[in-house]
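Reposting from the mailing list since nobody answered there.

I have sequence plus structure tokens for a pair of proteins and want to know whether others read the tokens the same way I do. The first protein:
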Amino acid sequence: MNRIAFDRICSVLRLTARGRWSYVLLIPWFVPTLSYLAVGPSYLQDWQVFLGVTSLVWLLTTIAFIPHDWAADAVVRKYPELHQTIIRAATMALAFTGLSAFFLSLYAWFFIHFHPFGSKLTTDSLVSVYGFDLIAILLLVGINETSYSLNRWQQHQVNKEKLKKENLQGKLQGLKSQVNPHFLFNSLNSLSSLIADEPKRAEQFVDQMARVYRYMLQTNRSSGDDVSTDESDELTTLDVELGFIDSYYHLLKTRHGDGLHLSVQVDDYYRQHRLPPLTLQLLVENAVKHNVILASRPLRIEIMTTSDGCLLVSNNIQKKAARSELVRVDSTQVGLANIRAKYQLLAQSEPIIKPGPDSFTVILPLLQKALINA
């Protein structure tokens, strides 16, 4: 049987990709052995009996294999995670045992009562058939579980590399926005105005600026390490991210004064939950970039946790008027798409974006380390 014909048969039978491998590995040894147990020595002594019994047992085995594959797929969908290996394998073994007992009893009754091809199968000899079938069940469970675990592990590795790439792109994007001449000029201009009149505040400004750049550089350096890490190392805790935002806000507040207000209301319980680094910086930066900031019209940014374990970042909307295409502010969709991609690669719920007439809100799922490593 060539590959094209085999694929067509599998498609007609609605076998899963994993089931096809199990079928290929099972049939060559299961069908001849079961045929011999059903017919006896004559199976190997008469070529007509050999072909007839082999064809019949292959057909009956194929019919029984289809619901086995469907059951395996249902079990995998119910228990998909790698840490659920034991319960998945046990459930699959129970399902296979029940299905095999049903089909084997039905086929045994057929061979015992009608004796096709001179079958020697009797009620007393069924013990060896059931024993062989039990071995086949264990092997089939092992094949399914090994195939599934290898595929999940490979996908896990691919997602890890994609996550590193997405994080690196996001971190470099954040770093670029901080070291561009415009931002640097504004920061140094704010510092210059403080040095002569308010040296204490100037010293605080330098300290906060150093913290911002240190965090950015350390984050980018960790993403470039060659040491193998898991996804949890590609994330940061909410507590660390809020510490960075505090320093970042200090720089913005020094420049904008009463035109900018940041409110942080975070439950202590969620401070060790995780999220992609620089996510908050990107959202705060977007709010500042796209809105008018005046003492008479202050921009208010709120960061708070919700009762269902999410982080809500919201700001009031007072868009800047674009005087021309040259000064038109770029869309934030690239940054938001970057955040979405990271959550997708972590197999977590995506952020919810709620643009409204009066406020712009992003709801970020906070991740527990145990769930990330699952």
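The second protein, same order (residues first, tokens after):
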Amino acid sequence: MNRKELDPESSPVAAFGERLRRLRDERGWTQDELSERMGYSGTHISAVETGRRPPTRRFSARADKVLGTGDRLERQGQAVRHSAILEGFPEYVGHEAQAAEIRLYEVGVIPGLLQTPEYAAQLAESAVDRGAITPDQASERVDLVAKRQASLIRTPAPLVLVVLDESCIRRPIGEAAVMEAQLARLVEFAALPTTVLQVAPFGMGARRPFDLPIYVLTLGNRSLMSYAESTQRGHLERESTFVLPMLTAYHQLQAEAMSQAASVAMIQEVRKGTP
């Protein structure tokens, strides 16, 4: 049988189709057998698997139930339905919710895991004003921030290590009250027993190893995973050969960044309006 080969990196639709086909193959089912279990036609299954038809929320939820995949396909399906969320990110979020250690570096804005609802809403509203996303997509972004933060409230709690470029705390977002509450949130975050917060000052210059946001996860089995993104594309990396150099660079970044005490002091100075 001739089968259309898909590049899962080419688009969220292709990634979903490839995963659905792989899960079906692992169970030894034909498209017709999967269609009977799901209550869809074989033609419909084929169209989704080959990327010709995007999965609806109902389709994704039904596939999860039939294939016994929890809500993984539904989360991945969100990337197809909501283009404002970069490719690869919904799947990353699923792993983040189970990671033992989370390391992240952000430039320009406070990362989602640390955002207040008002700060997150302001970023989303600004994107709508620019015509970059729709109001529905803005709501999706804000909801995703809340879900990610909620997933961290578990036992044992993950170790979360954050390095912020200095631009994150000095770039004003929204009214003064929004920024004040956000900076206060950072100070509270730094005081938690399972977190480390550092600022990478402008003075680091070329010693800064990353120019774009980067996330590195250590999963419960000690395997590594990374996620990096540009303006238009996100990439989830599972191969340790590529993730280990990122982890090494992250350690170098931490060594060059300010200590947590010095970082909190800088944040407090910004709150007071001092340079």
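Reply #1 (J.P.):
I read it the same way you do. The beta strands are 101-106, 159-165, 195-200, 214-218, 224-229, 234-237.
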